[in-house]
Task: inverse folding
């Protein structure tokens, strides 16, 4: 394209560069659409642990064996059946797409993600809890508590203040009677120099990348291993760049499978996820535009972002929630890009308008009680088209996906990145289909 020449029109424009936006863009691209994605910064996806929560077995008792627990698909169905406002319920028949959506995300991000199993993998946090994840990074898979056939060495860096191997091992010991391995804490003399105890996760991750560094870490680990160790768990700092192959090199030098813990904020696995998405989007031919959306009215009309005007037949709004900026708190809850109505979780459409109250009024005292503030977002129809004030789709070619959707509470129901993948997949395909079908007949703005 020569300077001054107008850009060719797009079929699909995705607003938001988290996992929901990335999956939507890739799914639309797979259907043959010309796609651009606008984002102003990383959002919640880049802060996540790096593992994808779809749903865990809410009926399991603390003493139930891990292997007896329901898998992510059945757990998602049950969650949808219990919570009619949850995106798993709202998509209706679309929930059948969940296995295809996960397989799609895993294959698009193949270098990063291990293929899904039918069950959740049980992965350790830095606090010694085991969380169920439907998808995880390859660097985490060997730490699945049901896969370790012997003792699990839980390694920390001696003197480092970020992780406590004894805390993690102590917590994981609770899962040994449930089918998990026997954990044993070990301390490695790595990063033990002056001031190194305060190195941040991304600094440690970079320090393990150069030639020889991961190998040295592996040799120290091998010397510290307890008898009968079948795998080792390390802090979540096994390299920022995938091509540095830190887990593989460390594992070869240690002589056993190694895995990293789930990431905590600031999360190296979360940054790795963001990097892998951006690379894949570029490779797949999605045009990436950096900058905030400055003006947006409706699909078919010019949208101004990053100093550029973009026109596309259909849009996918994937702007996230509070972290991403898709829902803002300005005395009340609002959706800043299009001014779509926001609903506070659990809100009865016929009842008082909770979302118009000050955000602080939307929390409840009990930490295990549903929190309307944390489940606030857009209402959508089963095709994931946001509803306007009149309860009807705001625009026939506007779709929404991910955290901007209301009705789910990732911190409580464990469905954050799972919702992003399912709804990104459904919305991206729907947007491509609608846009390509309408393209021949010419678009009207509404
Ligand atoms: C700290 C933390 C840890 C979490 N850990 C996990 C976990 O381990 N597993 C899990 O399954 N879930 C986890 N979640 C939940 C999960 O991360 C989110 O539900 C999910 O990332 C939402 O993805 P998204 O793509 O919808 O939004 P985001 O990832 O937030 O992306 C939103 C995007 O929209 C862009 N955007 C917004 N407004 C504009 C605008 N006006 N112009 C241009 N761009 C805009 C942002 O810049 C960003 O790129 C966690 C959440 C948090 C906050």
Result:
């Amino acid at each position: 394209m020569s300077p001054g020449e107008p850009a060719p029109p797009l079929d699909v424009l995705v607003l938001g560069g988290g996992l929901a936006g990335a999956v939507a863009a890739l799914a639309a691209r797979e259907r043959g659409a010309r796609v651009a994605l606008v984002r102003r910064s990383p959002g919640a996806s880049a802060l996540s642990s790096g593992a994808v929560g779809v749903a865990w077995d809410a009926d399991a008792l603390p003493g139930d064996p891990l292997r007896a627990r329901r898998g992510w698909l059945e757990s998602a169905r049950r969650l949808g059946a219990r919570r009619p406002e949850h995106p798993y319920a709202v998509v209706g028949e679309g929930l059948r797409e969940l296995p295809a959506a996960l397989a799609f995300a895993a294959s698009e991000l193949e270098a990063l993600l291990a293929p899904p199993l039918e069950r959740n993998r049980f992965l350790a946090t830095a606090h010694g809890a085991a969380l169920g994840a439907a998808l995880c990074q390859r660097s985490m898979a060997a730490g699945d508590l049901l896969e370790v056939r012997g003792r699990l060495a839980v390694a920390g860096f001696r003197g480092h203040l970020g992780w406590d191997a004894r805390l993690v091992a102590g917590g994981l010991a609770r899962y040994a009677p449930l089918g998990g391995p026997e954990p044993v804490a070990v301390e490695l003399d790595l990063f033990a120099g002056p001031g190194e105890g305060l190195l941040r996760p991304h600094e440690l991750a970079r320090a393990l990348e150069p030639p020889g560094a991961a190998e040295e870490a592996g040799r120290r680990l091998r010397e510290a291993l307890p008898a009968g160790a079948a795998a080792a768990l390390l802090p979540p700092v096994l390299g920022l760049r995938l091509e540095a192959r830190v887990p593989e090199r460390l594992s070869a030098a240690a002589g056993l499978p190694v895995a990293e813990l789930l990431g905590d904020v600031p999360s190296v696995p979360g940054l790795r996820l963001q990097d892998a998405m951006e690379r894949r989007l570029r490779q797949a031919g999605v045009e990436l535009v950096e900058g905030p959306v400055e003006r947006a009215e409706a699909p078919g009309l010019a949208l101004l972002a990053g100093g550029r005007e973009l026109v596309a037949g259909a849009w996918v709004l994937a702007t996230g929630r509070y972290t991403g900026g898709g829902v803002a708190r300005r005395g009340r809850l609002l959706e800043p890009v299009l001014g779509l109505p926001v609903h506070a979780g659990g809100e009865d459409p016929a009842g008082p308008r909770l979302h118009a109250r000050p955000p602080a009024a939307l929390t409840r005292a009990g930490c295990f009680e549903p929190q309307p503030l944390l489940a606030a977002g857009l209402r959508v129809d089963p095709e994931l088209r946001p509803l306007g004030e009149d309860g009807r789709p705001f625009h026939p070619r506007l779709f929404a996906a991910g955290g901007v959707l209301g009705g789910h509470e990732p911190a409580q129901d464990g469905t954050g990145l799972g919702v992003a993948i399912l709804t990104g997949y459904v919305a991206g395909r729907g947007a491509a289909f609608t846009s390509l079908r309408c393209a021949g007949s010419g678009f009207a703005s509404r």
User: Anything to note?
Assistant: The longest strand covers residues 151-157.
